């Protein structure tokens, strides 16, 4: 098996093993050989795709262009908008203010949630805009009808900084991109540029309100997300509401309480508020720093106090956050306006029957295409033995070998010790595993690089330390099982996406995982609701107990396994199910 994947369009090769997973200069004599292998089935439907499966050009690890970097047809988001959604009787204008939006600026679930919820509200008849920083890394061609709509100034440290506001459309959703003329949001990725991130998001929060003020646009709801936009409610109620913005009400969604926007009074003052005014227990002081010199503030706490309603992303995480963590006291005081609403899946972007990234499509009634996706990924990553087919023939894949995937940010929250343990255990059980992950911490990165070096040449484990939206779709489609062993998990989209693509979840019982996965062996669960394998402890034994049972079902009870796969695909974890709860929250705070 070759360890090289080649990307000739960039004259780079991708080494799977020797140096972790890195692009390196291509030897000069390599020629470009790009073969677009997808069976073009989006017009014909999944059954037609299967009829022409032999046309697939099977990928190989030695391809010049890795199979997930080939050209794909563009999303026709408009054609997939559900037409049967009932319109709400009293439409409103909602503006999301956010640091992420899928797919143009996505790091984790926040980006998916903003896009999915915005689309669900649009299809229910509301007017929705998404405001986000115009990160330098946003690919302009992904924004349709991009145009500069206003140039104005916004305040920073005694100066007025020129700002450009652009309008455009991203997968059918109207966006407003805010581009400051200073260094904020410059760099190759969404987070971690060479600027002060906290001050950049403080500036962005004010610049969004300033834009509403200069344009006279007053939505019913300004929906802010996470600590990055936690200062907006303060700026709204203590500044802009005293100027011209009267109508909007503020809803804050907390996607993850771990990040709370620690800052100093002076930093808040930089955006024009009096930072010292928020240094009280009732407002924004971080309770743990009381009596310290200096005390710290939390933008998330300030956002909770100043918003009209606060939502977190699952009912179980709501309970957990009321019982533990330093923000529990603030949340208990805010109990009347604090709600737990489960995230949904954006079915336009995540639909195995129409997904443009898949080599073959499928649905709950016909999963033949899923088998092709599994073979395609196995083949492309060299997970199939040398004896399997070559060239353009159908390979003798190993469909009976359970393929487990784990797609995640590689951070301690995600249960890193269980992910590394899983590699060993899955090998022992004779399965295959693919990890697609990105670490922000250098130590974690080097630990996983080391593991990649150890395993990526072998027959059963692939560790890919990169971010790829396209590959993530293919992996969900290829997998028999999706692993989410989080220590805590506010909601978790990975298990829901996996289920929609027919991968059975193996999860730790926490947060939103506990709200979406119900163990097949738990007697008290209603059989038709059971859809996965659940464990409770954070030790290897607890994890093995769930993984081993999943493997036993897969190998020894094929009919029951097929039933579970059907059930996971039929679970309705879409926004159709939960967007209405957000509408109720919006309605409960909006001005009539
Ligand atoms: P979190 O928001 O904590 O990162 P979620 O499970 O809610 O976790 O959402 C993670 C989202 O990010 C999913 O859409 C998942 O597929 C995606 N994702 C995570 N890591 C990667 C990666 N390396 N490449 C592509 N997509 C990824």
Automatic annotation (TrEMBL):
Q: In which pathway does it act?
A: Glycan biosynthesis; starch biosynthesis
Q: Does the keyword Cell membrane apply?
A: no
Query: GO CC terms for this protein?
Result: amyloplast; chloroplast
The record's catalysed reaction(s) read: [(1->4)-alpha-D-glucosyl](n) + ADP-alpha-D-glucose = [(1->4)-alpha-D-glucosyl](n+1) + ADP + H(+)
Q: Name one GO molecular function term.
A: alpha-1,4-glucan glucosyltransferase (UDP-glucose donor) activity
Which CDD domains did the record assign? GT5_Glycogen_synthase_DULL1-like
Which key words are in the record?
A: Amyloplast, Chloroplast, Glycosyltransferase, Plastid, Starch biosynthesis, Transferase, Transit peptide
Where can this protein be found? Plastid, Chloroplast; Plastid, Amyloplast
Q: Where is the Glycosyl transferase family domain?
A: 400-554
GO biological process terms held by the UniProt record: starch biosynthetic process
Tell me the ranges covered by the Starch synthase catalytic domain, including all copies: 93-321
Enzyme Commission numbers on file: 2.4.1.-
Q: Please give the start and end residues of each transmembrane region.
A: none
Q: Which family does it belong to?
A: Belongs to the glycosyltransferase 1 family. Bacterial/plant glycogen synthase subfamily.
Tell me the PANTHER family matching this sequence. Answer: GLYCOGEN SYNTHASE 2-RELATED, PTHR46083
Protein name per Swiss-Prot or TrEMBL? Starch synthase, chloroplastic/amyloplastic
Name the species this protein comes from: Linum tenue
- Upper taxonomic lineage: Eukaryota, Viridiplantae, Streptophyta, Embryophyta, Tracheophyta
């Amino acid at each position: 098996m070759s360890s090289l994947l080649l990307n000739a369009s960039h004259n780079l090769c991708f080494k799977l093993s020797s140096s972790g997973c890195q692009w390196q200069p291509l030897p000069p004599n390599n020629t470009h050989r790009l073969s677009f292998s997808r069976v073009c089935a989006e017009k014909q439907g999944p059954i037609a795709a299967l009829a022409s499966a032999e046309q697939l050009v099977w990928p190989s690890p030695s391809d010049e262009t890795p199979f997930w970097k080939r050209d794909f047809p563009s999303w026709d988001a408009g054609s997939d908008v559900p037409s049967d959604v009932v319109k709400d009787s009293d439409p409103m204008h909602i503006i999301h203010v956010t640091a992420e939006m899928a797919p143009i600026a996505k790091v984790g679930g926040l980006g998916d949630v903003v896009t999915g919820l915005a689309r669900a509200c649009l299809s229910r008849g509301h007017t929705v805009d998404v405001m986000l920083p115009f990160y330098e890394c946003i690919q302009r061609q992904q924004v349709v009808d991009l145009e500069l709509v206003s140039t104005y100034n916004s305040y920073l440290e005694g100066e007025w900084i020129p700002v450009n506001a652009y309008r455009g459309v991203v997968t059918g959703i109207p966006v407003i991109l805010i581009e400051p003329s200073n260094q904020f949001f410059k760099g190759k990725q969404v987070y971690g540029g060479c600027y002060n991130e906290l001050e950049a998001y403080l500036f962005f929060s004010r610049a969004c309100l300033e834009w509403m003020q200069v344009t006279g646009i007053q939505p019913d709801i300004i929906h802010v997300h996470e600590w990055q936009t936690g200062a907006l409610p303060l700026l709204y109620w203590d500044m802009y509401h005293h100027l011209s913005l009267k109508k909007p009400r503020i809803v804050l969604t907390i996607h993850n309480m771990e990040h709370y926007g620690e800052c100093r009074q002076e930093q808040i003052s930089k955006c024009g508020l009096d930072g010292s005014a928020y240094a009280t227990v009732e407002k924004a002081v971080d309770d743990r720093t009381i009596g310290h010199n200096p005390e710290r503030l939390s933008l998330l706490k300030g956002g909770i106090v100043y918003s009209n309603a606060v939502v977190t992303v699952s009912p179980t995480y709501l309970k957990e956050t009321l019982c533990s963590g330093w923000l529990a006291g603030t949340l208990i005081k805010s109990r009347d306006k604090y709600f737990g609403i489960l995230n949904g899946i954006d079915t336009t972007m995540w639909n195995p029957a129409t997904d443009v990234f898949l080599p073959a499509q499928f649905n709950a009634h016909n999963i033949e295409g899923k088998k092709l996706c599994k073979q395609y990924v196995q083949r492309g990553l060299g997970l199939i033995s040398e004896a399997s087919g070559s060239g353009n023939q159908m390979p003798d894949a190993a469909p009976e070998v359970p393929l487990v995937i784990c797609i995640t940010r590689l951070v301690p929250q995600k249960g890193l010790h269980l992910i590394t343990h899983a590699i060993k255990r899955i090998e022992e059980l004779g399965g295959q595993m693919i990890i697609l992950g990105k670490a922000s911490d250098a130590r974690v990165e080097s630990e996983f690089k080391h593991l990649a070096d150890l395993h990526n040449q072998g027959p059963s484990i692939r560790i890919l330390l990169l971010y790829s939206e396209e590959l993530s779709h293919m992996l969900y489609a290829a997998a028999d099982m999706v692993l989410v062993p989080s220590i805590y998990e506010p909601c978790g989209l990975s298990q829901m996406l996996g289920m929609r693509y027919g991968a059975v979840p193996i999860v730790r019982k926490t947060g939103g995982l506990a709200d979406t996965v119900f163990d097949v062996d738990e007697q008290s669960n209603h059989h038709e609701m059971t859809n996965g394998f659940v464990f409770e402890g954070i030790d290897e034994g607890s994890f093995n107990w769930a993984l081993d049972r999943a493997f036993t079902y897969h190998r020894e009870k094929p009919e029951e396994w097929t039933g579970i796969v059907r059930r996971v695909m039929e679970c309705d974890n879409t926004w159709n199910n939960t967007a209405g709860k957000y509408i109720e929250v919006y309605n409960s705070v909006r001005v009539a």
